[in-house]
Amino acid sequence: MLVSCGQVKCDVVKTSCCFVLQIFAMACRYLLLVVVLVCVGAVSAVEVHRPRGVPLSKRQFYEENRPFTCLDGSGTIQFDRVNDDYCDCKDGSDEPGTAACPNGSFHCTNAGFRPAFIPSSRINDGICDCCDTTDEYNSGATCQNTCRDLGRKERESLRELAEVAKEGFKLKEQLIHEAKKGLEEKQVGMGKSKVAELQFSKKATEDKVEALRVVKEAAEQPEKEAKDRHLKAWEVSQIPVSEQQAVIQVEKDKAKMAEAFLRLDLDADGLVSAVELQSHTELDPDSDGVFTEAEAQGVLGGVETVDTGAFETVWSNIKEKYVSEPQPDVPTPEDPQTPEDTREPPPESDSEQYPDDDIPEEYEDDDQDEEEDDEEADDEDEKVPPTVRPTETAEEDEQAMPPYEADTQSLIDVAQKARDEFDEAERALRAVDDQIKGLEKEISLDFGPSFEFAYLYGQCYDLTTSESWGSWSGPEDSVYSLMKYDHGTGCWQGPNRSTTVKLTCGKETVVMSTSEPSRCEYLMEFTTPAVCQEPPSLDSHIHDHIEL
Amino acid sequence: MAPVLMLWLALCLSGTGAVDRGNFKTCDQSAFCKRQRALQPGQSPYRALLETMELTHTKLTLQLINDNNKVRLLLELYRLQGNMTRVKINELKPLKPRYEVPDVLVHEPHSEPLSLLSQDENGVVLSLGGEAQRVIVSARPFRLDIMEGHEVLMSLNSRGLLAFEHLRMRKDTFSYKVTSTVASVWDSVKWVFSSSQADPEAEKQEGAEEPKADDKAEEEKDEEGMWEETFKSHTDSKPNGPSAVSLDFSLPGVEHVYGIPEHAETLKLKTTDGGEPYRLYNLDVFQYELFNPMALYGAVPVMLAHNAQRTTGIFWLNAAETWVDISSNTAGKTVFGKMLDYVQGSNETPQTDVRWISESGIIDVFIMLGPTPYDVFSQYASLTGTQAFPPLAGLAYHQCRWNYNDQEDVQAVDAGFDQHDIPYDFIWLDIEHTDGKRYFTWDPHKFATPKDMLQGLVEKKRKMVAIVDPHIKVDSDYKIHTEIRSQGFYIKNKDGGDYEGWCWPGNAGYPDFTKPEMRAWWASMFAYDQYEGSMENLYTWNDMNEPSVFNGPEVTMHKDAVHGSWEHRDVHNLYGFYVQMATAEGLIQRSGGVERPFVLTRAFFAGSQRYGAVWTGDNAAEWEHLKISIPMCLSLSLVGISLCGADVGGFFKTPNSELLVRWYQTGAYQPFFRAHAHLDTPRREPWLFGPDNTALIREAVRQRYALLPYWYQLFYHAHRTGHPVMRPLWVEYPKDAATFAMDDQFLLGRDLLVHPVTEEGARGVTAYLPGKGEVWFDVHTFQKHNGAQDLYIPVTMSSIPAFQRGGSIIPRKLRVRRSSTCMEHDPYTLYVALSQQRKAVGELYLDDGHTFNFDTKGEFVHRKLSFSNNVLSSSNFAPAAHMSTKSWIERILILGASKPSKVTLKTAGGQESQLEFEFDASMSVLTIRKPGMNVGEDWSLAPPAVRKAPLRPSRSNPGEDASFQFDVNMEGRLV
């Protein structure tokens, strides 16, 4: 009774947790093994005869001297045909102890270790499969009974695993606790939650931006007028005659074009797209205030994107209209109306200060952040010009205007201050926005049933690949034992690069190994408390029965 | 590694997913082919000088003269044992010796006397022995016709395309003038020796004509490409100038010609009029295209011609680059063909004309006169030897991949097969297992303890193959390299230094395997104490032995590289043959001559069958590639190479699960059964495609293992007789024209017909069951079908349509275990398929499965099984053989049987016992339960079977025959 009960229970456990996370299953099996062993010990006194290869659980079907009915019911044979080395039953049940049936299986008791079924084809094939050697009874193979050794080793490793699991589980509980707390803070809806907080701060920042915009615009109007006056005065005094100047003009135009290209190319992919162009409403061909994507495409010559080469043509058409941004010290000769609501980044004079195209492409928002960072650096550069730059500007200055008069300059300074404050506020707004988006994304991710994986978010365990998060992909009963990162860059004739991360229970979060089992398919083995299962607190049992 | 791969990719990746044809020459780009192909038929300048004819007891010799340049040739004609004629043509006095292919013939063929039947000024008629076979030598122009009765079997130079570019001095060089005098002196000396038996009168004549010939020769113009040729930045210096040879053959009455592998082509060869000739030049072709005449990895210059009356063969023994043109008056008639028709006055007789063109060497051609396909196989085998008898495990399933990464990977794959209960015998390691592509070494990190790994396989009774390629990394710390260099064993470049080219290891040297000393040294490297980490269960794979040279012309070696006194040009197609020969010899030697070797090669030549297995190279995971694996292996089988297979799953690209399953099913019924995959493809071990596909693959592999006794017996026969294992249907049904071009199905031996499913999404296949009056039994359902019909068979994913011929007995072992070695002592089940006449015969062969003891000690069992007069009996095929076995017969299935009242077994001791049996009336299958006789007992002393009761003569209503007594008489003993 005890045995069959254990058997049933074990089956259940086996199907509920296996493969990678075997701790629970193994521990459970061990327990049952103990139970079985106790029973075997108890029953063996009664000496139960059964044909070779039959498990105890099925011995009642093999009653000596009574006709045997195949377990699938397909036929009935005399008992002397059981294990007579000829396959009579379609299901192979008449030959549990010989290799006669192609689909049969043999049961090894493996006293001291776990009992096992092996395919009949492994009986007497000269290879020791059962640790109790019972599968090789007539092959001449010399097998050693290794069950006790195996059992001891298994118990040892089980105990170790159990200890790891125990501590790991404690850590996991802590992680769950922290993750839940973190989540609550982040989730929208709760008055005090982080997202709500951020939403609130966003609103405040938006208001501030609006206010500063008004201030800025107010300050810019007089500045512009003063500058125009200054410009006109200067233009009258300038008569560009020399050829050299024309060449310089062409060069400058080219430089401007290059600068404009880089500016327009918001995502820095080396292509200016219609969408990117749309932010420059001054380029709207019909100036109706609505610069549609189609119109932008028209500007680009009817294509989605242009590269630097094609941009040359586009540039010749738009350069008159194009406004990079208000240039306080070098106003464009024929300054069209500066669009007030331009989303252009703040001023800067040298596009080459942009980083190369190694900007990570993960999130557009990030891009912008980084660009802004760079821009800030640029701003600083302007204040403390690097050694190379002045020579260039000095050259340009030769053809440039004389300095502004004091009152103009003060107007400019005021306007500049307003602009700076406005830009500052706008940046703050974007930062808040990003934070909100990030949190929302984080919340939407699957961090496991109890958010035990949340702590891993944003952490990097050094394996440089370019795949993106795919999904949890463990087997049905332990989905969270495998992580799949896929759609990396393609391999020649092969798949796109992908990485599988195998998680096992451990006290620390560590990469145990990395390998490439198949070309461009990487495997990382990883320990983390997050996959530790609650140990079934069987320590006492294990200790009790070690002697067996 | 990285730069090498890069280079390789750069070389090979210019096409998208298919061969870049521009990397390989067309006939027009190969100067000699272009020159030769420009010759017009019907204008042969060659004349036989009948007065120079000599007839000895072994051969006829005769001089030919080219009337244009007065250069003389020497014709030798032999009548060979076994109905063959050999025609050899060389320059009478070449400037220097011309290459004659050594080592391919197993021995100098035995000749039989020719007799002169008649002679006049126009020619000579010689008798070729019995069956009224004659050869007619016509003098002007020279021509040979082989006749039987009034029928012309084959004509040589009938189109006048015999051409022999004599060796000459280069006219524009100073040395020409200086050495020509010396050369002619040397020639005269040589002439005296070589013509010691010649009539002094003729010699005088010869001497008189000689200067004239020389004068005339100088008038010949040098054509472009005679002394130098450039292809894609590679210049061939051609120091010996033009040296091509060519000859045409006409085959009256023939519409079907086969053979001349290796081409990705249908079984029946196509005419080449207006297109490219078939090319024989061993090349490493990246992602080869299907259905075209481009050269591939190997070359066997043997063509078979067949019609309903006769099968003949042509073996053109020349190892240089060779092109073969085929034309036919029935398919795409040429103007000349029509003219011939008109001249011959027959529009009806089909005729195929074949023309062989080789770049150098001599004309040495063996004409195999059949008349049956099996006669041709035997004739060819008598020349070049038979199939090596592989170890039994070599016929089982091989698991390969470029690459199994490390020892843990090998162990995991090995365990995977056990976990999924799929048998396999060999796991393979590709180039990455070595220490930096230094063959005979192991990667010190990934394969640190190879013996442990091999021992792990020994414990599972499994084996391993590791690759050993012939290109040797140039590295002064690499023992193999330094030894080859110090012994001067490398092939030399034209300037005398060691030839170096790029291959997997980067800069590499190429050992000169044409040297016997080099081969002996190479063989010695396989000794267990030389090849560190090797063990008796480690076997060898020779890849890249065309040879592949990544930066060479057409990805191979420069033709002006030097092998001793010969150019690479002369020996090119032999290189791979020699590599495999030396390797196989090494594996034999390491065991003291006891163990049979197993060596796989990619490049091959005539005779390669003696050294192991061949595969069809780097195919692709495409349905068309699966389909073409059948004709490619059939073509190889026809020319002696039985142990052939294609990479299961396809090497390049990634098969979907349906293609993979179908490929396993097809491969399970092809001789060499190995899955292989490119480094850059996802893993595809059989269990990676879901449980359903795993089960389908498991079942296909199990069918293979169950049938291993039959496979083994077929290979034993192939080894003994040279008869192919995998056969086109026409070989067995030579009069059935419906079978002549069939290459989507095939026979294994005589008795098993396989029509694998090679169509995507197939719901059925139409198999042709040949043989009027024959019956075929579906091997899975035992349903009986009549012969000579197209049979539609509905298929599912598990179907592998296969049929056993009525009249045959096939042994199987149904206890499929994890490797073939594990099944050694297992009992047999006999499948007796009765013919319409209620007869059946079969065989059962077994030995230890891996040594030469079957040959050297007669340790084998070979039984003849026959069923007639309702008695099944087993008698000894080889009374001299002796071996004891534990194997017994556990079951006998008689297909197409009627129900007996009882079945009685008689054993050697005279004991009788009643056997239990079951009878399935719906399929007429009688299953006899556990007869139990040992198959290895000496049965030759047994008395003949005695029936216990008279049998009814008629079996018209067997089911109603209640008194019918069915005896099974066996000699043996019960276990």
Give an account of the 3D structure.
The complex is a heterodimer of chains A (548) and B (975). Chain A has helices at 2-16, 23-44, 147-186, 194-237, 243-264, 274-278, 293-299, 308-318, 364-383, 388-399, 406-444, 539-545; strands spanning 68-69, 76-77, 105-108, 116-119, 272-273, 305-306, 468-472, 482-486, 498-505, 510-518, 521-528. Helices cover 45% and strands 9% of the residues of chain A. Among the domains of chain A are: 2-67 and 97-159, no CATH class; 187-239 and 351-446, no CATH class. The two termini of chain A are 21 Å apart. The radius of gyration of chain A is 39 Å and the shape is elongated. Chain A has 548 residues and is of the alpha+beta class. Chain B is of the alpha+beta class and 975 residues long. Helices cover 21% and strands 26% of the residues of chain B. The longest helix of chain B is centred in the N-terminal third of the chain and has 21 residues, at 174-194. Residues 1-16, 188-218, 938-965 and 969-975 of chain B have low confidence and may be disordered. Classes of the chains: A alpha+beta (548), B alpha+beta (975). The A-B interface holds A 84-86, 99-100, 102, 119, 121-122, 125-127, 491-495, 515-521 and B 9, 405, 409, 421, 459-461, 652-654, 678-683, 702, 814-818, 822-823, 826, 890-891, 929-930. Chain B: Residues 722-810 form the Glycosyl hydrolase family 31 C-terminal domain. Chain B: Residues 76-325 form the Glycoside hydrolase family 31 N-terminal domain.
